[in-house]
Amino acid sequence: MLATLGFAAVSVLGISGCATPSAEDNEITVFLIQSPTADAIEARIPDFTAETGIKVNVVDAPYDDAHQKMLLAFNSKKGAYDVVQFDNPYLAPFASQGTLAPMDDYIQGSADYDIADFVPALQDYGKYEGKTYGLNLSTEPFLLWYRTDIYEELNLEVPTTWDEYLANAKAIQASGKASGQVIANASSVNSWWWLQLVWSFGGDLTDANGNPAVNSAAAVKATDFMKELLKVSPKSAVTATGDDATTLFTTQNVGQMINYSGYAPVILNPETSKYTDKIAAATIPSGIANITELTGWNIGVPADSKKQKNAWKFLEWLLSKNNTPKLMDAGAAAIGRTSIVNNAEITSKSPYIAMLGPAAETGRRLPALTQWAEISNQIGVAVQDILTGKTSTEEGLDTLNGQLAVTLGK
Amino acid sequence: MTTKVAKPGKGLSIGKLKTSLIQGHSIYLIPAWLLLVAVALVPLLYSLAGSFTNASLLNTQSAFVGFDNYVQLFRDSRFVDSLLNTLLISALSILVQMPIGFGLAVLLNRQLKGTAFFRTSLIMPILLTPVAVGLMWRLMMNVDNGVIAGTLRMFGLAPIDWLGDRAVAVWSIVFVDSWQNTPFVMLLILAGLQNLPDGPIEAARVDGAGTFRLYRHIILPILSPVALVVLMIRVVESIKLFDIIYILTSGGPGTATQNISLLDFRFGFTFMQTSLAAALGILIAIGMMPIFRLWKRANQE
User: What is the pLDDT of residue B291?
Assistant: First the structure.
C-alpha cells in the first residue's frame, strides 16, 4: 500500500514537473569578461527578460583570470554557465577540449541572426575545425589611426603601403611636431603586431606542413621594419602594451598608430583623448599580402550547459540583426555586420565603423592553436630581445624558430 | 606559556599518548595543527602529486609522467634565466635594504628632533599594497611623461628609460622593492636596538669604547639574532617577489626581469600547464628549505 502511494506521489510530482517548467528552467547564467561590451550586455538583459520571461544571472571576472575560471568550471562539468564570453585566441583551447557546444544548427536555422550578414572572414571567426563554437560579439581589426591636423600641416597622404606609413612616420618625427608613430612592443602583446607585419610582408607563423617558419626572409624583413618603426616612436613605446600605445596616442603628440578598432571608445572619447576631433581612422597599409589582423570577443554556449536552448534564445535575441545596433548603442564594441558597416546613420556618428567592412574583408584572425598563449609569449620575448638589441634579428628569429618547434611538437 | 611535547616511547599506549598530550598541553595545539594541515600541508601534497602528472587546465584526463616535468624544467632556458634573475634581484635587494635599514634604525634610535615624524613617514610605504606601489612607480618612471623624466628634463638632463632599458630595469625593480621594504628592515632593527640591555653598553662605555667599537663588539653581536631573522624574511620575500615585477615590467624587456615566481605564474595561469607550474613550485619550496633551516638555527641561538 505504502509502495503504491509512494509510486503515485512520485508520478504526480514527475508529471507536474514536466507540465510546468520550474523557475530554474527559466533562468540562465551568463559569464562575462569585464569590458564595455559586458556592461552593454548587462544593460540589455532587462529587455530580454521582459520579452521572454527568462531570467539572466550574470557572473563576471576581469580578463586576466576569466578564461582560467571558465576552464575550471568546464572541467567540473556541472553546467555552471549557460553562456560564456571569451577572447578569440581561447577558441581553439576551449573547443579542442570539447568544452563548447557547436552552434551551427542554431545559426543556420535562424533568420533573426542572419549569418549571411557577415563577410566570410567573420562567418568563420568563431569556427574551430569546421564547426562554429562562438558568435561574433565584437569585430576589432587593426586600423590605422592618424592625426588629421598633423597630416594636413605636413601635407601627408593616408598611407596605403607600409613603406608609405614609415615614410610618414619619419616625416612627422623629423618635423619635431610629434613622434612619428606608435605600436605595442611590450613582450606580453607584441606578437599580435609582429604577426600582422609578418603576414603583410608575405610570411607566416608556420609553413604548409605546420612547421614553424618565423625565421623566413619575410619574417626577418618584418622584424627589421618593426625596429625601424621603433626609431620614430615615443621612447616608452618599447615597453608599451596596446593600452599604453593608445594612451600615448591620445595624450601625447603622436602622428599615427596601428591599433585595434576596439580602442575607439577611448580614442574618440573627449574624457580620455585630447585630440578627439583631430583623429581619423583608415584601413591599415598593405604589403605583399593584403591581410588585416582580426580580433574581437566571441560568445558561446558551454557543452555542459543544461539549458542550451534558452542560452541560444538569449544569444539569438542579443545578437540578432535588429538588436545589434541597440547593443552598440548601449556601449558595446562594434560588430562588423554588413548591415552595420554600411549603415549611414551609424557611420556618420562613428566614421571608423565604416572601416570595419573593408578591414574584415581582408581579415585574418590569430592562429587557432591550442598553444597560442605560450607561442605568443615566446614571440613576445624574442621580438623584444631583438628590439632592445640583445640579439640580432636573424639570430633571435632562429632561436625563436627552435623554441616554437618544441612548443608545437615538431 | 611553554609547551612540552611528549616524546613517544617504544611502548607508548593510546592512553599514555592521551595523558601526555593533555599534560603537555599539546592538545590545545590541535586546532592550529588542523588548520595548518588544511591550508599548507594538503595543498603542498596536492601540488607535489600534480607535479608528477601531465595535468593541465586544457587536459581533463591527466596521467602519471614521473619526473618528466622536472626534467623539462631543467632543460628549459626560461627556468635557468629566471633563476639567475631571481638570485640577482634578491642579492641586490638585500645589499640595498639591510645596510640602509640598519642605518635608518640607528638614526631614529638617537631620539633626535623630529624622530617621530620621520619614523611615521618612513613606515608609510609598508602600508601600501605592492600593486599600488608598482602602478605608482610605473607612472612615475615612464620615460615619456613620468614625473622623474620631467624633472630630469627640467634640469637639462636626458631622461632614463627606467623600465625599457634592460641594463636599468633590474635596478628599477630593486629600487622599488627597496623603497617599500627597507622600512620593514628599519622597524625590526629599531625594535632590537630599543631592547638592548643597558649593562654591557654602559660597561663598554666606562671601559672607553668608542661608537665604532661599541657597535662592532657589543651592539651588533647582541642584535645579530634579530638581524638574521630580518635577513631571512627579506631573502624569502625577495625570492618570491611577484606583484612589483608583474606591474612594473611584466618580466621585460624580453625576460630581463622575469623571476622564478613570475615564470611559475606564467606556466600555471598563462600557458595553463598546471603540472609544470606545480613542479616549479615544489622546486622553489625545496630551494627555500636551507633558508628556513638557517632561520630555525638563528631562533634557537
Answer: 82
- Full-model pTM: 0.86
Q: Is residue B64 one of the residues assigned to a domain?
A: no
Residues of chain B positioned with their CB less than 8 A from the CB of A251? 145
The reply to whether residue B271 touches residue A381, judged by beta carbons under 8 angstroms, is no
Tens of pLDDT along A110-158?
999 999 999 999 999 999 999 999 999 999 999 999 999 999 999 999 9
Instruction: Find the closest chain B residue to A75 by CA distance.
Output: B60
The DSSP call for residue A257 is E
Contact A93 B271 (CB under 8 A): no
Alpha-carbon gap: B73 to the closest alpha carbon of chain A (Å): 13
B151 and B240 share one domain: yes
Chain B: give the shortest CA distance to residue A7, in Å. 40
ipTM metric? 0.83
User: Quick check: do A27-139+296-365 and A142-294+371-408 share a fold?
Assistant: yes
Domain ranges of chain A: 27-139+296-365, 142-294+371-408
Note the CATH number of domain A27-139+296-365: 3.40.190.10
Cell of A154: 605636413
Q: How far apart are CA A93 and CA B57, in angstroms?
A: 10
pLDDT digits 0-9 by tens, A194-253: 999 999 999 999 999 999 999 999 999 999 999 999 999 999 999 999 999 999 999 999
The predicted pLDDT at position B1 comes to 40
Residues 6+ apart with CB under 8 A from A377: A187, A188, A191, B266, B270, B271
**Contact call for residues A401 and A204 (beta carbons, < 8 A):** no
> Which of A377, A385, A388 lies closest to B266 in CB terms?
A377
- What letter would DSSP give residue A206? B
Strands (E), A358-399: 363-365
CA distance A376 to chain B (A): 10
Chain A residues close to B71, C-beta within 8 Å: none
B108 and B207 housed in the same domain: yes
- CA dihedral in degrees (A172, A174, A179, A183; nearest 10)? 80
d(CA A142, CA B205): 75
Separation between Cα atoms, residue A228 and residue A209, nearest integer Å: 31
pLDDT band at residue B22 under the 50/70/90 scheme: low
Answer yes or no: do B45 and B80 share one domain: no
Instruction: Give me the sheet containing A27-33, strands edge to edge.
Output: A55-61, A27-33, A83-87, A297-300, A135-136
Q: Which residues of B touch A388 (CB under 8 A)?
A: 164-166, 253-254
Q: H-type helices in chain B, by residue range? A: 14-23, 30-36, 42-50, 68-75, 77-109, 115-127, 130-140, 147-154, 166-194, 198-206, 211-214, 220-239, 243-248, 260-265, 274-300
Is B56 within 8 Å of B273 (Cβ atoms)?
A: yes
Parent domain of B150: 72-300
CB contacts, 8 Å: A97 with chain B: 58-60
Q: To the nearest 5 percent, what fractions of chain A are helix, strand and coil?
A: 50, 15, 35
Q: Tell me the C-alpha distance between A401 and B186, whole Å.
A: 49
Q: What is the DSSP string of B217-230?
A: IIIHHHHHHHHHHH
User: Grid coordinates representing B74?
Assistant: 631543467
Q: For residue A29, what is its C-alpha cell?
A: 547564467
Measured between CA atoms, the residue of chain B closest to residue A68 is B269
Amino acid at B141: M
Q: Which residues of A touch B270 (CB under 8 A)?
A: 373-374, 377
Determine the topology of domain A142-294+371-408 in CATH.
D-Maltodextrin-Binding Protein; domain 2 (3.40.190)
> Total structural domains in chain B?
2
In a domain, B2, yes or no: no
